[in-house]
Amino acid sequence: MRVSICDDDVSVLDQYSTLIKLIAENNEISIAVDRFEKGSQLLFAMEDKKLVYDIVFLDIFMPGQNGIDLGSQLGASGYGGFIVYLTRSEDHMLSAFDVGAVNYVIKGEAESFSRFEKVFLKVAKQVENRRRKYILLNSIDEYRNIPLDSIQYFEVNRHICFVHYGKGDTFEFSSSLGKLENTLLSFDFERVHRSFLVNCRAVESYTVKEINMSSGAVLPVGRKYSTQFRQAMADLAEVNLAGSSKTSE
To answer: Quick one: which of 243, 144, 137, 231 has its CA closest to 188?
Structure first.
């Protein structure tokens, strides 16, 4: 799970990033936390670096672009994760929910940390449930509901789309890789070739030119997609490493 915190107060960033990591460790949640002092920095990470966050924690009162406007911009740009506001006042809560926030925490209250833990675990559960989501695919005469975590990869062959999943199962359906790529961006699927979209969590190993899937399939890596794929795998490894640090200690 990857989360970000955006707050102009460095002490708040220190406090809540430490708290998130502690809660995650105590509940065996794999996590990576990124910190930003300005909304522009968060937007740059998401739009230019293509980082995908499961949860975004936003301060409301920030100089320049406030958290409400930032949340609205995230929604308009297609952000599909969860937004939680950290604020010192309830005055803007209705506006916060108008831009798609799922919850908020009042900073500075005596019970704010215990409430933060409850809110974080609740939203983390929603993230986990989303990861276990199914995708409904249809051919001319059949619909098939397939768990995302069972999918190895999608393939286009002669303008026909196939999904490879489970223990060697394959299903032909109507779609395009471009549409699937946009739909599954937040679920660790990555385009690696003009003909292949892979589940990064099903990658066994990879080189510059090819990928070995856990199913045994060997797929090519297109030069156009190589850098972004390797970055996606590095980001996933960072999240997994953060989650395994408790065991290694």
So the answer is: 231
Q: Nearest 5 degrees, angle CA 213-CA 205-CA 233? A: 100
Tokens describing residue 207: 């080189």
Euclidean distance between CA atoms 216 and 127, whole angstroms: 29
What's the mean per-residue pLDDT of the chain? 85
Q: Rounded distance, CA 209 to CA 196, Å?
A: 13
Q: Would you say 86 and 59 are in contact if contact means Cβ atoms under 8 Å apart?
A: yes
Q: What is the dihedral of CA 149, 19, 40, 80, to 10 degrees?
A: 30
* Cα–Cα distance measured from residue 169 to residue 122, given in angstroms and rounded to the nearest whole number: 34
pLDDT reported for residue 245 = 47
Q: Which residue has the higher pLDDT, 49 or 206?
A: 206
**Of the ranges 49-53, 82-86, 99-103, 203-207, the best mean pLDDT one:** 203-207
Where are the alpha helices (H) located in 53-92, listed in sequence order? 67-76
Please give the structure tokens belonging to residue 222.
Answer: 């297109």
pLDDT on residue 140: 83
Q: Answer for the pair 171, 139: CB distance below 8 angstroms, yes or no.
A: yes
Amino acid at 177: L
67-76 and 39-47 are packed helices; what angle lies between their axes, rounded to 10 degrees? 10
The span from the CA of 120 to the CA of 147, in Å, is 25
Mean pLDDT over residues 190-202, rounded?
A: 95
- Pairing mode, if any, of strands 101-106 and 82-87? parallel
Q: Indicate the pTM of the whole model.
A: 0.57
At 3, which helix (H) or strand (E)? strand 2-6
CB 79, CB 46: distance < 8 Å: yes
